[in-house]
Amino acid sequence: MENSFLEIMGNTPKMRLLAFLIDGREFDYSLSDISKNAGIPWSTLHRIMPIFEKSKIVVKTREIGRAKLFRINQESEEAKALIEIFDGILEKELEKYQIKAEARTRPNSTALLSEKSLAKDWLLHREEKAWKRL
After folding, report:
1. d(CA 57, CA 59)
2. What are the beta bridge partners of residue 74?
3. Which of 11, 49, 74, 98 is at a distance of 20 to 30 A from 22, taking alpha carbons?
4. Which residues, in sequence order, are CB contacts of 29 under 8 Å at separation 6+?
5. How many structural domains does the chain have?
6. Which pLDDT band holds residue 66 (cuts at 50, 70, 90)?
């Protein structure tokens, strides 16, 4: 499910940057964190980051020493549209997962409950993963 956005939009450095920042939209990240966690080479990140800053899709939030921290600009109309697409893709994938789980477990209601808890666990895991990025 995590790669659904990239499968649809394309697995390019720009899309990996957007997916990473949208997924962790409540946090800000250093360029090193972004490079490491989004799988973007340092030189490529330095080349594409100014494009996103200039378009105001990504904003610099603060500096800690020499490190500059960035996040997705949730006030930008363009970023809002990208976030809506990202969330829509994620919701569709989660719905597919839940429908498949219900179809497999329809005769047994306790198994259905356990499948729903798996979906909730997956969402909690996603949040924990975002916290660990800090």
Report:
1. 7
2. none
3. 98
4. 20, 21, 37, 69, 70, 71, 133
5. 1
6. very high
